[in-house]
């Protein structure tokens, strides 16, 4: 037998795939070898509506933290801290379960338009 | 030790599966494959194999179960025919793209409709673009030999692809044939113990398979599958050489029969190659320079070997036991013609669709093809390149 040429899957020890990797470097069949790897794949750009925190209304019950399917509610010392917008897909579950309506969902397009308008004013 | 037996193609394949002793077999019965799994299941219930036999509710589930077992780290097999393969179609693509070395006999049968249970290659041709390796077998001996080699080809680290072993429904599957079977220990040491490099039940080295793969990576993974197919050509030849050492029977990518000085050649898969070889022997006695090319591997398509074997012939007839309805002939015709195009030798390549729904290919039919090729060489013209052989016109 000739020695194996291993024409794929050189990324066996790759912790995270990168966009600049060619087909020879990427793992075979897209297999992933690192547990807990979801953090390396940023899904924030899937979002079309953005949750925004209303600090005055929030009672820090952290029901949103329990319900968020993407672990995108960040809490510090048992209190609401911020959203992880790099991973938040904008599903709106947090806004829907909030008992005091302290999370509002805004259209990303609308936010973009407003930011552009503000820049133009400056 | 040589052991001659008289058994059917299905019995031969079930025998090969028994000697391979796979970890998991998941299958659903369908004519003409039924006997393969029926006989194999008796080996299971008699304790002659260690296999976990999964009686699934459909072929879609059969391949799904084989995929799950293979991903978990088992040597897994299934078997099917015709409508069963059609129902399995979706999962065949999953098996090949997950790079799982599942071996499965396909006992070739026509696809409905109108409903038919007899031999043609429409079922196999349906998965020719699925990334599965396809080996074809002329008789029960080759079906048996291909099954054993398929395991080694599929599991080779450069390949890691499913392998389907094709043989003709009824003609090969149900006809009694004399063949040599290897002894159990020889097969056991040839196929070896399956040691997957990575598998889901390996708790120390976690791996996640079948991940979501968007436009940013999918294309690269398809390119990897092409590389594996390319590597398979070499592996098929190497495993063939090793198999020759234990069996005395030669296996390569193609079987070139009396082609050395041939002017005319017929290219044909499976059992019909046997009939064509018989006709070639008769015509050779009459002084005609004729030969047969039988591709053993259809996927990957061994175009280099086909070019080399046919580069000196003047006219070639490709016999397809399947239609494409493209109005441009059968599936193998396109591949052979493409392979010969760059030779620029002005080889005339014509197509004959034959044997659909189990219609016999008679020796006179093959003689007629060689007669047509002789006319093409004489006149230098091949006006009608798609023909129907044995059809009532």
Question: What average pLDDT do the residues of chain A reach?
Answer: 86
Number of strands of chain B: 15
Number of domains of chain B: 2
What does the main sheet of chain A amount to?
2 strands, antiparallel
* Integer-rounded radius of gyration of chain B: 21 Å
Distance between the termini of chain A: 71 Å
Query: Multimeric state of these chains?
Result: heterodimer
If classified by CATH, what would the architecture of the largest domain in chain A be?
2-Layer Sandwich
Give unreliable regions of chain A as ranges: 5-10
User: How many separate helices of chain A?
Assistant: 3
Helix-strand category of chain B: alpha/beta
Q: List the uncertain runs of chain B.
A: none
- Main sheet properties of chain B: 6 strands, mixed
Instruction: Calculate Rg of chain A over CA atoms.
Output: 20 Å
Strands ordered across the widest β-sheet of chain B? 9-11-10-13-14-15
Report strand % of chain B: 15-25%
